[in-house]
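Dear Dr. V.,

Thank you for agreeing to look over these. As mentioned in my earlier message, I'm a first-year student in the group and I'm still getting used to reading structure tokens, so any feedback on how I've presented them would be very welcome. I ran two proteins. I've put each sequence directly above its structure. The first is here:
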Amino acid sequence: MTVTALNPTPASAQKAEAQVVPLPRPAKRPQRLAALGRIVAERIAPPVVVLLVLLLIWQLSFSGAASGLPAPTDVWEQSRELILDPFFVYGTQDIGLGWRVLTSLERVAYGFGLAAVVGVLVGAILGQSALMMRGFDPIFQVLRTVPPLAWLPISLAAFMDSGPSAIFVIFITAIWPIIINTAAGVRAIPQDYRNVAAVLRLNQIEFFWEIMVPSAAPYIFSGLRIGVGLSWLAIVAAEMLTGGVGIGFFIWDAWNSSRLTDIIVALVYIGVTGFVLDRLVGWLGHVVSRGTTE
């Protein structure tokens, strides 16, 4: 009987059979493009379409020769330099709207920053006592309804200077919603958190940073967002009367010179700046509160 020997498989062949061929990974670029397309369709396209429709209505409504207001094409033709070059400097008073906005923002930074610090501290103190809150709340409600320009004569008489007077108007306008919202947030802190602070024997400073600020952050930043909006409104109104190189005085000067197209461009600058300030404070609140505020 003949026995046939089996030849062993070479090592190289066994190694080739044992190799694992990786499967091709799905391309991520189409997914990213699809996500970008959804963002554009959901967030960017709607406001752009609405803006274009409003511009078309504006153009059709005021394109006649007898119209009292300029059409968008007139604004572009007469105020093109203000739109394309916001940072030109031709003289002490002849500067671009970008520099004027920055000048106004500097005053807002001083007034609103001071209002934020004082308002949060005072609101935190008042929120600890229901009796104190009942005593001060009617006064706050009365003072917060006073228009910003009504404070201007008082501030001019007190400071004898337009710069500090404008900052005071911003401060006194923005502080009330900050105080009221902060006090409401402190009063809304759950009792369990206060019990934990008592067990851990936290002092007042530790309680403020570890318990009060994280818990009351949604209320605090709601007041700050209202306050920064009021600050921007107040500085524009105050600069119309106090003068200087701010955006408010530019509007008043353009009105006296019958430059309506420049006023419209300035209003766009004011609106965009206010929108950015609101979103900036909202983003800061989102970071501080770890996503609990919108």
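The second protein is here, in the same arrangement:
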Amino acid sequence: MAEAIVHLALNKLAEAAVTETLRLYGAGGQLNSLQHELRWIQAFLKDAEAKTNNLDERAKTWVSEVREVAYRIEDVIDTFMADVDDHNNQQGVISVLKKILRFFNPNKLPIVLKLTNEMDAIQTRLREIKECTEKYCINRELKEDLSSSAMLQRRPIRGVMLPDEDDPDVVGLETDKENIVRLLLDLNTPRRRVVSIIGQGGLGKTTLAKRAYNSDKVKREFEIRVWLSISKQFELINVLSMTLEGIRPLDRNEKDLLKDPKSQPRAEQYFARQLNSLLKQKRYLIIMDDVWTPDLWDKVKDVLPDTKNGSRVLVTTRISEIATKADSTCDPYAMRYLSVEESQTLLLRNAFPFQDPEAYLDGLSDLPQKFARKCGNLPLALKIVGGRLSRELPTYNSWHKILQKLNWHDGDEQNCTNILATSYEDTPAYLKPCFMYFALYPEDYQIKIKPLIRLWVSEGFIPERNSRTMEETAEDYLEELVQRSMIQVVRRKFNGSIKYCRVHDLLRELAIQKAEENNFLQIISNQGDTWCGSSTTVRRAAVHSNCEDIMQYTGPNLRSLFYSVYNMRNIESFRSLKILCGIEYYVTPHSKILKKMTQLRYFGKFEFEYWKSDMKKARYHRISYWKSISHMKNLQTLHLTGFGIDWPQPDCIWDIKTLRHVIIKQADFLGPPPKSDLPNLQTLKRVKVRESWLVEGWPKMPNIRVLELILFPPGYKESFCNFLMEAPHLISLYVYFFGAPYERLDMRSFPSYNHMQSLYVGGKWNNFECIGGVNQYKTLDIHLFPIHLIKLCIDESDFQEDPMPIIEKLKNLRKLTLLNSQQCQKQLSCSAGGFPSLEYLKLYGLSLVEWKVEKGGMPLLKEIYIPYCPNLVAIPELQHMTSLKTFTLKDVHEDLYEKLTGEESYKLKHIPYIDW
């Protein structure tokens, strides 16, 4: 990890703002010297850390001292940049420096003298460390190790693995899946039954449970299915609320009930009653994955109705006592180890994800079998080692060297843990901080990728490259971690990129262990938690419990704070804080505290609460917040939520040139002022169009990629077209039109036409025309839509003609949503071969009477969602759509219900999951 810390320190010294500021203050020479010394030391660190367990105390001490110096460099630079901001009274650093240079020598400023002294001391310490490598023979030892384990030539990543409903990496579970499904569906025991899967970590218990949970037979038989991931420190209120949320969305009162710790007993009783009432008349399946304590079943068994309808609870656990206590009448299903042949197959699938392994087996001799034995036939270990091998040339010598690094005896009980540690040690320096970052999330947490990537960028983990954005580079890092089997993909977007991921329990434990060893991250789960490292050197803290005084756990060097609690004091002590982020339940710190945090780069997922008291106070605090945020001159991500009140909003926040992502979930939030210059802005979500843009011009956002505009007034065509001509990177556009009349926009002339992936257009189109709009005078034109569109949503468009014959020609379209049109065409028709890539279709609030699809149309459709079309009486011959998995039909004409439960029931027999 020391190598990764040095890597981050070098990234810090290479940041454009830091480099320019240091040179303007006369510290350029020291900057170059520091970079030279760090690069020299970094050359030895990777192999030193890989052998840390085998090296003597001299080398371990040397590695630890290098890490501390790297941390000190980061602290000195951050403190200096904060001092510069204070000295310049929160104004632009460079412009003020130029004024200073006209009058006196900046080298005489106190902040410069302080910086010079600190950097001199660091250079002296680096020279001492360098001398120690010779004095204590560490240099020779590391050089010998360097020659004996030289870097092997890497194979490039061949591509991005696309999402696959049937995981191709699963081997040997088909029979087990059938056995579990049989136990779940067996009606010889009609009363509620608990089926348990037991086995050690890494055997595939969760994978087996998921395959049973998603099987077509189970989807058809159970009216309610809920998946729960149970952590070691579970709370009953969380289990109950998650179960209820898996059945129906929680309303705002229920969410507020969860936020208040004082209401927990009352909340438990409430959620227990709600659950029992909902489940009493239904056949349900509840999955409780990764249960660690027998107490859980004692607390929930009375909540889950014990009816005679074949309801089931499936528990996965490592502890046989839990399985026996849950249901002594049903023997637990014990996971088996893979056979040598199955192990070899799984290893090779991960080692050659984009190639045929048969072409290389002759040259590898018996190495695949040796790897299988070394991994103890554990699926998780085999996937990780296979991911490691995928980065090497498929030759006997390169694979044999990897096998030699797995230096434990076959059959060692700790071999899975050893494999994880070895895989981490072999991970490149640039990926180690990214991997350890997963430790901050709660156990079994589904991690949303967009915020994660923005956090990596804000932390400085991602280098700047001329040809790619840092966010694109971060996605590459994420895919590499997936290929190495260090993280698991939960869901991908329609364009193939990752949307949600998770970390296996064992790998999360490894991330926590490495984070603790290196003072990288502190997790505060309960009051009274202690930290094994020095609180003064902790860099990041994740607070998962109510913690009034964060300073008792951390120190002034804290850089990132993640929390989900209400009351924390002394946050203002962290003047150099870069990340302040809520995780689940979140509130906003006081504006007086925020005003001092000028170094913040990520301020995210916060909610204003003052509206609950009095309106005058709310107005005052909202203005104070905006002014406080405007002092954050390094801010990259701003993510706030609010309510439908026209709060005052000063324009000063748009003076922050470093902004990359602005997500404001609040009604009437105005976009940037006319002609604002936001050169780094990539995401701007849910902002209201300013009328002044029509006259004075649109803001300059040359790198905008995701744009959401609401309440789009009439008369904006020319100015909007001019803006789109200057937005070549736009991939997602959300526009809600308002007013009349409006002319259609032909998108062929815009530079984003060939690569836009997502388009949402809304507004009353019967009075005007816009992107794709139609009325009784003009027809829809396929060229109005971007040619490679993946997602399309059309809202409140009163079609006078059937739009399907045009939209079905979008060959790459995978998701289509038509909403809120009570005067649209009464019939929608799709031809054979239409919508060749469509997977998801939603029809909501339409005056539709009949929907037709010719045989061969929509061949890949997986999900149909029709929640409110009260006049609908006829649907297509769905039996021809063999890929269909989910069909939801609510609030349609009663004649359609009668047909589908009677003479037309044949249309639905092949669909695994139907929701009426």
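From my reading of the second output: The radius of gyration is 30 Å. The mean pLDDT is 77. Does that match how you would interpret it?

Kind regards,
E.
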